[in-house]
Each structure stands twice: as C-alpha cells, then as structure tokens.
Amino acid sequence: MRRDRPFRDVPVEYADIEIENNAQRMPLVLCLDTSSSMAGAPIRALNDALQGWTHELHDDVSLGYSVEVALVTFGGQGVNAWQGPHALPPNAPVSPFVPAHMFQPPRLAASGVTLMTEALELSMRIVAARKTELRRSGLQYYRPQICLVTDGQPTDATGHLTDAWRRLIPVLADEQHARRFRLYAIGVGGISELGEEVLRAFAPKFNARLQGFPFRELLQMMSASANAEQKGAGDEVFEKIFSQFKTQRPAWEA
Amino acid sequence: MSAVSGRDGRRGPWRVHGLSVEGYRHLRGGVPCQDAWHFAVTGPARDPVTVLAVADGAGSRPCSDKGAELAARLATTHFGRRATPAFPGADAVHDQLRAAFHDVREAFLRQTGDDADDYATTLTVVVLASTWVGHLSVGDGFVVLRAGVEDGQPQFHLLPQADAPSEYSNETVFITTANAESWLRTACVRDYAIDGVLLSTDGLAQIALSWRDGRPDRPNESFAAAVFRSIDNPGHDPAGDDAALAELLRSDRFTAINADDKTLLRAVRR
Questions:
Q1: Which residues pair with B209 in a beta bridge?
Q2: In this predicted model, what pLDDT tens digit does every residue of B66-76 receive, in sequence order?
Q3: What are the backbone dihedrals phi and psi of residue A247, each rounded to the nearest 5 degrees, phi first?
Q4: Helices (H), B148-259
Q5: Which distant-in-sequence residues (6+ apart) come within 8 Å of B144 by Cβ?
Q6: CA nearest B215 in A: which residue?
Q7: Terminus of chain B with fewer CB atoms < 10 Å: N or C?
Q8: How many CB pairs under 8 A join A and B?
Q9: Nearest CA-CA partner of B175 in B114, B260, B108
C-alpha cells in the first residue's frame, strides 16, 4: 500500500480540527536468529531486506502510523531487544517498539549461540508489556504479531543443543489459544529436521521451511498479514496468505 | 463515495446530511465502500419523527457492502414504524428500540438467507422525535449529540457505546452475530436543548473521539464543532460542500489514523 498519489491535505474549511495520533496500534516483533550460522551472505540478505522493508513502511499511508516494530535477536552471547537501530541493555525501562513510519533498522552482525527459547520468551514479555502500556495510554490495538526466523536449532549459552525449548510448547499453546498474539515460525537456509520440529511445535499453524534466505518476501508477508489484521480478516485469510507465502508466491499481490 | 448529499428539503424539523467515503485500503484493493447510511422522516406532518442509521459492513465478508446498505434501509423503515411521536416513557422507548431491532434482524436474516454471515454489518440508529431521542447500537458505531452552551461554547456529548467483545479493536459484533441482541446498547434522552446529532462508523472513532483507558471517552470538540459548523451554515453550492467534506475524510491525516471507510451522518435543527 505504497503512497502513489499526491499528499491529500485537510481542506481549509476544516483546518481547525485538532487530531491526536489515536491510530490503532499493531505491535510487531521480528525475533531474528543472528547466530554464527547466519554469518556472511544470509545476514547481509537480512540487513538488505530490513532496509528495503523500512522504506516500504515509511511510504505506507495506512501501516506507517499503526504498526509498531520491535526487533529481538538471538546470537552472540545472548538475546537482545532493539529499539530501532539501538540495542537496549537487559531490563531497560523503555519500550523497544518504534512506530513504523519512524523505524530505522540496525545493521545486524552474526556470531555466537542460538538462544531461541530465551528470545521468544523476551518477545512475549515485550508484547505483553506493550499491550499494558497501550491500554494505559488509552489506545486501541490489533492482535500483535511475532515472527521467529531461524536457520538453526536452540542451544544453551555454551552453544550446545538443549531441550529447554520444550518448556515453551505449553506456554505458546496457551498464549496462542488465548489469541494474545499471532506467531509465525520460519526456518530458512539449511535448517535441520530437528530445527523444523521445533518450529512446528511452536507454531503448529504458521510454520514454514523455506529454501534459501527469502527475507524480502518474508517481511512483505508480515506487512500483508498486518493489512489483513486491520481489515478484520478471519483466520482463513491468514492461513491463505501464509500458505501462498510458503510456496514463495506473493499472494497478497493477487 | 457510496452516497452523496442527503439534505432533506422536504419535511421535518431537521436538516440531514450523510456521506460515506471508501477508505484508502479499499480504494487500493478495488473493494467497494462497505459503509452505508440512510434516513427517513415518518409520522404525522405536524409531529414527524426522523430516523437516522449508519452501518459498517464487515471488512472480511464478501457481501458486506450490500449488508450495510440493507441494514441501514431496514432500520429507517422498522424504527420509523415502531416510533411513537409522543414520549411513551423511558422504559417503553427502550422496549420500542429493541423491538424495532428485532424486526430489522428478522427481515435481514430472511432476505439474506443461508448466506447471512456474508452480509455481516454493524448498525447504529437514532430516532429523533419532538420530545425524545432514542439510540440503539450493535457494534462499534457511535453517536455524538450537541446540546446546550457553556461559556459561549456548544457542548458535545458521546452516547454510551456497546461493550466491545474482545481486547482487539478490529473485532466487533454484527447484527448477524448469533447473540447480537444481548450486545445491544440502547439509550433514551430527553433534552430539549439537543440541536445537533452526528452518527458515524468506527472509521472515524480515533479522530472524532478522545480516548481514555482504551475506550472512547468524549467527543473531540474541534472535530464536532467543525463538522456541525458546515451543516449549520451550508454554502450556496451543495456539491462543493460535499466535495470539501469528502476531501476531509479522505485526507492523508485522517487516513494515517484510520484507513477504513468513513461515514458521517449529521442532523441539525433547521
């Protein structure tokens, strides 16, 4: 929904109307794997895709003031929340969410371990905290979206495979049943069978294993999903968008 | 624009004007405007009743534009039929409103048959009798009344809205919802100072209302004052007035706050 027409101003007869930004908000978390397996071309592709998506959001008249973007990365020695281009210290008292029309992505680097479980837990915490803030501010919101993207499988802080992710399965099932957010879990690159099993367990309806690193299409799918949410679309619409995304055809442009 | 001017030059003590514009999202998607409005003047010529209705078709349903149109028209017919020009007592007004909604819903379900859910729509109705005002709403439409003046400023009042069914703002109740009658909100107002009424669908809720604790709290006075001003003092060119109002509703400042269809149905005493 790019701006493809001249700016439409308020007519002079109505110029005295004062408008607060009461737009209904949609928190969107990108929970991204930046562990060592993403080094090289994959992380470059991710950075480029984030840059391109940012331009699209800035130009999008309806998503720009509604979608709020936060990034969570898992790589290096742990997990990080990002407020736009800035990594926040752990337990920072500020929200990582930035209105989409002001969002600027960080330049991500890949290294270290895959604390996927902890990253998803952090994603859920920041979504819950943002909802509370929005309610306090008197603002309405749509169902948040969390998009987990990984090419690996969960490890502990020493880089060893772990079963700790299993503790998340009942939590995520409850949260999704209660419709607290919509979770997408996407495997890219050469994700293993076990990695795929993890994604299926986390997001039974919205998981995918994609060839290569199609981050651009993935971010466009998130925009399409945000648009569908704004329209009040039923679950079947999200399933259709996702199923066509899995085959890497841009259903939302059909 | 699904409909243009509705200035009623024929009868009734109220000047009425309605306008719906398709939202940016629908415009880009080639989807028709799914909002509708309608009004009718009924009852005896010496004591007429004006019925106003706005409806917002569900974004995800294939025939919701037709559903909104049907609901708004059925509402003016059935609420007009039930309305008594003389004040029958507050309880009787509430009963009358609920009975009229029941009539509308029955007729709607009859006409849309097995596909009723494809026509899902909200409905907000105001009945303007000479000594009372009735209001019924299912879904997230809203009504602002203008009544009284304080310190030289007209006073605007938001009528209580129906409860929201979930924490998410895009989820609401439709007249086709199975238990729609349990989500109804009705009101009876007796205030001779009422000289302006504004009905709208949720496309303007974030602009026309001020919010607190996630709920609409009161009207945005600057919005209400501006849109009542333009119907109180219409220009010599009704088409020009319509164009300016449509331009306002389609402006980027409004679209950035809400890209949905927008409807404004106003009535002011002549």
A1: B219
A2: 999 999 999 99
A3: -90, 5
A4: 205-208, 221-232, 238-250, 252-257
A5: B156, B157, B158, B159, B197, B198, B200, B208, B219, B224
A6: A138
A7: C
A8: 126
A9: B108
